[in-house]
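Protocol step 4 of 6: record predicted structures for both targets in the notebook before any analysis. Target 1:
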Amino acid sequence: MGDMTVSKLYFLSLMTLSYIVGELTHFLINTTSREVAREVEFGEKSCFVNGSFVSDEEENKEQFDCSESKNETHCGSEKHCYWEYSGLGIQYQVLAGPSFILVFIFSAVFLAILSDWLYDKLSRTLMLSVGTATFSTACLLMGLAGQYWQLVILRMMIAAGLSVCRPVSGGLIAELFSASSRGVANGIFSWGVYYGYGLAFVFGIYITRADVLGYGWRAPYVLAALPGLVLAVLLATTVKDPRQKDTEATAKASSDGRAYFRTLARSFLSPSMLILLLAAFFRHTAGYCWAYNTRLFFQTYYPHFDIGLWTFSASVFGGSFGVFAGGFFSDRLVQVLGLPSRLWLLSACTLLAAPLAVGTLYFPPPGAFGCLIVYYFFAETWFAVLFTVIVEIVDPEVRSTCIAIFLFLMNLVGGNLPVIVAPLRSYFNDYRSALYLVWPGFLTISAFIFLLSSLPLWIREKKINKQYSVNK
């Protein structure tokens, strides 16, 4: 890791911090959905226990579980129950998923093509700065929204801003760091997902509960946006876009459109990329299924357990250490066993994570969170390893675009498919069963497909080594 200089680490730190804030703005709706739904009025309604009600007949109170009531009339007939928005339903799923994902994927491809094709004309650090300012401003405005359609539009703005981070930063990391430290650098950058997701629970639960200045759920949206505005200024003024020394490659990418798209097609349509994409469909669906339903699952089955710090700890310590370890160990393995070994590690870790996901859903807390912490350690190796493999198997001049197209397709399927949880919950008449099917079930499928994706790389390396031996 000799190329980890202070200036490069500073650059990496700004990109990572921007990504953390971006993911915080992304997931904040998932931890405030019930509070937002009750004030803005959207989604399904359910029957809840009135915590302030004191009954003289405690036995009668215990005989009826408010959550069993399926209509307002029945719920209202019980003095200790009340009928209110639950934060669940198709409107919530649309707000959390499609309204964000559809803008995210199209914006990512468009902006990545610009960053690659106009490589010598368009500053990628300026793109990151504008993207950071966009999702930060949109998050701040969500704290002022009063209608459902306003939330949808602002979620779209957050998606447009965040879509810059992974593709553009992935290309920058590939140029800043060599193969011996690229996995670790990608691992550090991927902390953005886990710190952002974990902080969403801290902001969404504890800051909302603190009712800062009487603003309730609105305060965390405003406070989450402020660091991003500062980071946008630092990205625009304190770092510069590193330029490739190979001017011929730059000229080819920026001036010869047909050559650019031929290179793009050759890189993206390779067998390994296509199988990796299929694996990512299942893996991303599983991950988003849990991310969108974490708080709602515990609110449904364990409403009195405080999950805020537990979820933060699981995401930050389990997830961030796992993604760093994935990059670190894959960097070590690749020096001994070659590029396919990154995917062997990914497959093994994903397969080990599946029974831990089952344990998280099966055991009551805090046992569920013990499983979740270990789950994150194994499962979240995937992001750093996956994108390190992608930048190493595609041509340098189309890296950002390949990452963006990969994200486009991965999110088009994996980002939208978690909406099946709602109909599956109705079909099984059980929330937990729906999550069993989509979360650990899809994880297991993805583990075997990741293993399959290593086969074309293994065959290619065998051919290269054989040719090298003959020439030698």
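Target 2:
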Amino acid sequence: LIPAVGTCIVSRQLCTRPDHDNHWALRDFASRMMAAICKNFHSSTNNVQTRVTKMFSDALCSDRAPLVSYYGAIAGLQELGPEVIKVFVLPHIGALAAKIDMALDTSNSTSRVEEIAAQNIRTLLVKSVSPVL
């Protein structure tokens, strides 16, 4: 179950028309579901939350991932709590801001999907990082 839910969170493309279809709601819902899985099934033996956190962190640290994958990684980490945000998201704020600015730069030829992703990441970061500062 975890790989399928994880795919819904950090996958590059979840629908045929990402600029029109609401794959953001799917990523948000899957993030909440993954947090519930971690809460209910994590133990010192299986380390579910540790492995899930690593999956999100790896997606966030990737230089070649699309912005939609960054959004999913941040959404997933956000659902795991404020301590996870402090440790895994805050150190990458500068790099994320640069990627957002590059996607929103009008002189850059980015796709509409990347622009929407940049706006959604910015909103998500404000929502998730503000309480832990």
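Step 5 preliminary note on target 2. The chain has a mean pLDDT of 91. Residues 23-41 form the longest helix (19 residues).
Proceed to step 6 after PI sign-off.
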